[in-house]
Amino acid sequence: MTAATVAPVELEERTDIRNVAIIAHVDHGKTTLVDAMLWQSGIFGEHESVNERVMDSIDLERERGITIMAKNTAIVYRGTRINVVDTPGHADFGGEVERTLALVDGVLLLVDASEGPLPQTRFVLSKALEAGLTPLVLINKIDRSDARPSEVLDLVYDLFIDLGASEEQLDFPVFYCNARRGVCRRELDGEDQPLAALFEEIIATVPPPTYDPSSPLQLLVTSLDYDDYVGRLVVGRIFGGSIEKGQRVVTCKLDGSMIASKVTVIYSYKGLQRIEVNEAHPGDIIAVAGIEDVAIGETLCDLGSPRPLPPIRVEEPTLSMRFSVNDSPAAGKEGRYVTSRKLRERLYKESLHNVAIRIDDTETPDCFEVAGRGELQLSILVETMRREGYELCLGKPQVLTRTIDGILHEPMELLMVDCPEEYVGTVSRQLGPRKGRMIETTHLGSGRMRLEFKVPARGLIGIRSQFLEVTRGTAILFRLSAGYAPWCGDIPERSTGSLVADRVGRVTSFACDRLASRGVLHVAPGDVVYQGQIIGENNRPSDLDVNITKEKKLTNMRAASADDMVKLTPPRRLSLEEAIEFIRGDELVEVTPKAFRLRKKALHPGQR
Length: 608
Ligand SMILES: Nc1nc2c(ncn2[C@@H]2O[C@H](COP(=O)(O)OP(=O)(O)OP(=O)(O)O)[C@@H](O)[C@H]2O)c(=O)[nH]1
Ligand SMILES: [Mg+2]
What we know:
eleven-stranded mixed β-sheet, alpha+beta, binds guanosine-5'-triphosphate
């Protein structure tokens, strides 16, 4: 059949719905804007006490003030339901944005009125334009004293043009906002208005979902959730047909197989709540219970006429880390889940929920290769597992290379550093040996500079803590995957060795004092250590086995115990990220719900 003979399908519209995602660089105010949208849609009662950035509901999101997972909510404005998806701005969670864009017809691109478009703005906008979505631009934080909204808007136009936006996409509406106060205006010198103006523009500009009325059920699964009462929930958007409670459906799996199941409950969204409904229609974003064995990117279809939608594609992981069973002497004392079976189950469960994570078995049954987008993404997974009661060991992160036309290539990153001018030299010197190439510098005013480098991802492992140290905590770093390039050659590892405990025991202040001149200690008197545990950083390049449990020899003199009087420098306690950055190829980070410890892979000095 040629195209000419196919009868044109008359598409119908769901004029009562709009589906939009909010996208931006880190911290430009997405979650804050969703707060204001929820408040002004009247979802919360007047006296209801609601947290700030209420969509950041995961503990780690609240603690770190960042969004990790995309989440959806819905508001109703004058009879039109606006489904809104809040997305994370950090590059490591870019997969969340990619899967989310499959749900929506339009995006609100937020840009900080002072910072302007940044690398992740470019990444998320390029994905949105590629997907043919309708953009609205919101210049946010116009209340900042260093706001430069007109310039920023020009930069946004440049970015759209650079990314090959179509004529229609370039014709985007613009709002100037203060998301914190929940106000917006159409003209820079215009009056502040409530967000109703934004809601109206969304309804006017973002196309309503369209569908073929003769299509059987097609529900694209974009995330998985869990409910204590009904169990696993699949979340997604209906592209064709309808679904109702009790209906028998079939899951079209990515591998081509099909599995039948029965819909037990259907939920729609309202504010932060899920509301049970009996049926749902094209364009609706819903959660469905009762579906067995399903993964993100698969389609729920009509039993009689299964027509799967194209699967969701996300960018490939660039970094991997080995997660293995904790076999340290202290294993099993601090966690609930320690076996390789439990570890495997948990990791595979993660890969079901998290499209940007890939798990592979390795040559040993106790060890798994976990691949993701960056150190932050992997460390968030580790932190989550630790809080759930898991114990595990982590190996040094490795980049995932590729062979292209017979030549070894490695992942590259765009690194952006904002720092005071006086540190520009220091920062550049740090990146030289890491094979970083400076591609752009911008004066930001008030004595700060923005430097952009192209660096092999390998060279950036461990960079964050070093940069903070050499710039006295003043540098702001952001990184973004920037494709692959031929292998850039050797990059020297950390130039210091490790101080390693040569026996089990309790750390003494006498030993700490004696070893202080050797390097930086990670332990304090009273800590219990085991043989092979790394207790500090040696000033010299080689490792040094030391007795950190040594007691002062007792003499007959009863001087006021010298041991009590030594003034010790406080130990440098590493955070999880720092620990991951610190270790070398023959070292591991031991993670338990109570502690992180660094260790040599081979605990006994004779085996190293
Ligand atoms: N001055 C000012 N601050 C704002 C405004 N909107 C948001 N903020 C602040 O900016 C910070 C980041 O806001 P979030 O809403 O968490 O940013 P986000 O884009 O969701 O961040 P990620 O999800 O981590 O990418 C918070 O401290 C907000 O209070 C605004 O209009 N003006
Ligand atoms: Mg957020």
